[in-house]
Design brief:
By secondary structure, this protein is of the alpha+beta class. It is built from seven helices and four strands; from the N terminus they run H-H-H-H-E-H-H-E-E-E-H. The chain folds into two domains: 60 residues, Arc Repressor Mutant, subunit A, CATH 1.10.10; 81 residues, Glutaredoxin. Helix 2 packs across helix 3. The chain starts with a helix and ends with a helix. The structure holds FE2/S2 (inorganic) cluster. The site of FE2/S2 (inorganic) cluster has 12 residues, from helix 5.
Length: 156
């Protein structure tokens, strides 16, 4: 599943940590960046690579929201609905996105372009309401700004 170069990267990652278990998150990022999500087969692969129990890998993947155990859209819109964003109207953010794309939180558009999820604080409370699109933060959102972001993604 990994190329020789990726195997070397895994070894390099592993060398930065005192135990194999401690390296699992970085290796999972490597896997998810390549495949888009981490299937159970992928978890088994990472477990074998690091020689750790698959239950440990499964626990990490299912605990952290940044890992996906099923396919998601090309653009993953993660809308923060924690306190600061909620007070700054994250409900309108979700409503605008859902109305525009025709999907509810947790769903993916039929063409596989967009997935929308509700997430806990992304650490950008000062620019609430906000969301991330893949790894990029979009902040101080308004309905107009959201539609512009979606237009730009569709045109990309
Ligand atoms: S509450 Fe939304 S980024 Fe912190």
């Amino acid at each position: 599943m990994f190329t020789e170069e990726e195997h070397r990267k895994v070894q390099e990652i592993r060398s930065h940590y005192p135990t194999a278990q401690a390296a699992v998150m970085s290796v999972l990022h490597l896997y998810q960046d390549k495949y888009g999500y981490i299937s159970f087969e992928g978890m088994q692969y990472v477990a074998e690579l690091l020689e750790i129990p698959v239950e440990h890998v499964l626990g990490v993947v299912t605990f952290y929201e940044m890992y996906h155990d099923h396919p998601i859209g090309k653009f993953h819109l993660q809308v923060c609905t924690n306190v600061s964003c909620l007070l700054r109207d994250s409900d309108t953010v979700l409503e605008t996105i859902s109305k525009r794309l025709g999907i509810a939180p947790g769903e993916t558009t039929d063409d596989g372009t967009f997935t929308v999820t509700e997430v806990e604080c992304l650490g950008s409370c000062g620019t609430a309401p906000m969301m991330s699109v893949n790894k990029e933060y979009k902040e101080n959102l308004t309905p107009e700004k959201i539609n512009e972001i979606i237009d730009a993604l569709l045109a990309s």
